[in-house]
Amino acid sequence: FEEASEAALREAAEHLGASGARVKILEGPNAELPRCESYAENYAARKGAKGHVESMEHLYSLAGQLSHREGCMSLIRQEERGRRKGKQFQVVVMIRADITVYFSFKPICMYGF
Question: Which of 83, 90, 69 is nearest to 21 (CA)?
Answer without folding.
Answer: 83
